[in-house]
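Predict the assembly for these two chains.
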Amino acid sequence: DTEVTQTPKHLVMGMTNKKSLKCEQHMGHRAMYWYKQKAKKPPELMFVYSYEKLSINESVPSRFSPECPNSSLLNLHLHALQPEDSALYLCASSPTPPGQSYEQYFGPGTRLTVT
Amino acid sequence: KNQVEQSPQSLIILEGKNCTLQCNYTVSPFSNLRWYKQDTGRGPVSLTIMTFSENTKSNGRYTATLDADTKQSSLHITASQLSDSASYICVVTPSGGSYIPTFGRGTSLIVHP
């Protein structure tokens, strides 16, 4: 199994809702990432988990809360989002944490719309 | 500040033709340089990855080159197909510091029949 899966594919939520994005990989990778991508822009790094511990938080607002329950799963909990948070949210994984010559595998993304 | 600049911003070619996309970077020293293909609304898919000591890497019709002295990379697509229509993103990972990769803004390629 050489893929990263993300659910749901699409999500529409109101500003008062609480929802979660899920990411899963079964490649034995030890690092997992969340990125946010706006249309026609490159992905922006949000969080990095290395060996199931949060290692990088790129000054992301607290309305985004990551969670890594185990080495295969990565969640992104959403609460009180703003319309400008609408974007494609990408999950990625790599065999080793940042700092080594690694291959980063991306999931298909979750298209989030905040109304 | 680490930067990755890609050119052209967009490119339209006819099916069957070749094309070359450019990537200039200021990241130094760097660990690796990757080229990704991203279809609209989908996650990026890796095409090639090169370390600083490699000059070229091929993946089917895709060939990436790297000149670490001039800090330039190119992605050459041979015999383009309609399915090559996508955004091509150059990503450079620094060696040292937080090792956070820097993404280019991508080149949007459209292949017409």
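The radius of gyration of chain A is 13 Å. Chain A has a mean pLDDT of 91.
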